[in-house]
Amino acid sequence: MQGRGTAAIRLAAAGGLITLRGFPPMSADSAHPQRSQAITMLVVANLFWGLSFPLIKSLTGVHERLLPGSSSWFITASAIFPRFAVGAVVLGGLCWRALRTLTRSELRQGVGLGCFALLGMVFQNDGLQFTSASTSAFLTQFYAIMIPVFLALRARRAPPWTVWVSCALVLAGVAVLAQLDWRDLHLGRGEFETLVCSVFFMGHILWLGRAEFVANRALPVTVVMFAVEALAGLAMALWTAPQAADVFVPWTSGPWLGFTAALTLFCTIGSFTLMNMWQPKITATEAGLIYCVEPVFVSLMALFLPAWFSAWGGFDYPNEIATTSLLLGGGLITAANVLIQLRPLPSPAKAAA
What we know:
Elements: E1 9-11, E2 18-20, H1 35-66, H2 72-94, H3 96-100, H4 104-128, H5 133-140, H6 143-155, H7 161-177, H8 189-208, H9 218-240, H10 254-278, H11 284-290, H12 294-301, H13 305-313, H14 324-342, H15 348-352
Antiparallel strand pairs: 1-2
Helix pairs in contact: 1-10, 1-12, 1-13, 2-9, 2-10, 4-8, 4-9, 5-7, 5-8, 6-8, 6-11, 7-14, 9-10, 12-14
């Protein structure tokens, strides 16, 4: 899912290693000592994000039943505000002592993360109204390509061949997994907005990995991030609601509250806390590839969760059927991540040295 500032280029005399102040270097001789654990935690975060898709789809079904004719913007805002508001309150309660000593750097990082994540979500949701789900899924993952390209241009040095091969495998895997129809690809409003959302998700990932934030504490940063998204979500909900009182109508529904609680616990507090704690221990390029595992979890959960959720919520949401696309697409994405781990990229800690 970054700052601009003074990203000065420093050329190391020994060996000619190019690094960037503020961004991870393109090559180094060792990885972070907690790299393997970080990768595992980020895979778990992807599992939680995969759960968010059927949960948000279910929230939409309940919302449309409670308030027929609601705009897509209002439905989106009604899902964003509660998950991040409750997340900020719960996580803030757990680390209130740390919040009392919040630093300017932590505040800056949290605000930046909140803005990047929010804008990415808004453009992704709006773009989905004007293009197919498969095209959206494919174009969203373009940050996996844009991150190494951005860092290569900054450093004026190409990344290892394993990065390019892994990126190609990821895009191929997502295309197969989404059963992308290449005839649907054209640069209309939906496709353009989806590419814009991918740029913001790239910004989120890069902002989190900046060396200037290496000493920041993950929990207070995450609270600030949640607060930014909650305030923006509330403002958007009030702006797009047919009537101000409609903002509170979904809160009267048991299934809506249940889906929101799961979305908040697993897909908000769980996933973003893991991301903010562990991503800085690997490179942005590796993180971008690992986050592409999310569609695999989405496809797996779509095989059984929709029927359970729709039975409780009282709306129509059928299970999907397992196909060869799931096995082939998931296999390509997995192969990409295995390949990138065979030749570890530099430790982000090197950039701060």
